[in-house]
User: Which sequence fits this backbone?
């Protein structure tokens, strides 16, 4: 897939929606496309995480505690939490019956980008804060 297409897809990810085209292009250049065979465990709950994945094609099942929670399709993403905090994965993601194609960026590539481009880090913080607020409101916890 062309870099311009990856940049466009990244712009639709809420984590990156506040970034400039220039910063999105930098992220696109830092990752690569990966094909996963049907049924392959792309990430495993409780294990270390090394990459963020944006689904480009195919599908995947997201499981928590062995229970199917969500089907992931093009435009969905996973791995952002472990990418940022370096802690074990919170879910297992398994490629669907037709396989899975993702754009992946490793933690070390992403950390280098954050050091080089603090605006990327700021945009991520704003988005993650919004997620926390949404979760708190949904659970009735006000801060």
Assistant:
């Amino acid at each position: 897939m062309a870099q311009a297409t990856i940049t466009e897809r990244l712009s639709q990810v809420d984590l990156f929606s506040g970034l400039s085209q220039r910063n999105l292009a930098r992220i696109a250049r830092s990752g690569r496309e990966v094909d996963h065979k049907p049924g392959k465990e792309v990430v495993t709950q409780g294990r270390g995480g090394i990459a963020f994945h944006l689904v480009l094609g195919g599908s995947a099942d997201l499981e928590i505690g062995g229970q199917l929670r969500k089907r992931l399709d093009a435009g969905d993403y996973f791995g952002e939490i472990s990418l940022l905090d370096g802690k074990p994965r919170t879910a297992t993601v398994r490629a669907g019956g037709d396989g899975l194609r993702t754009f992946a960026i490793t933690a070390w590539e992403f950390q280098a980008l954050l050091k080089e481009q603090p605006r990327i880090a700021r945009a991520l913080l704003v988005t993650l804060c919004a997620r926390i607020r949404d979760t708190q409101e949904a659970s009735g916890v006000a801060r």
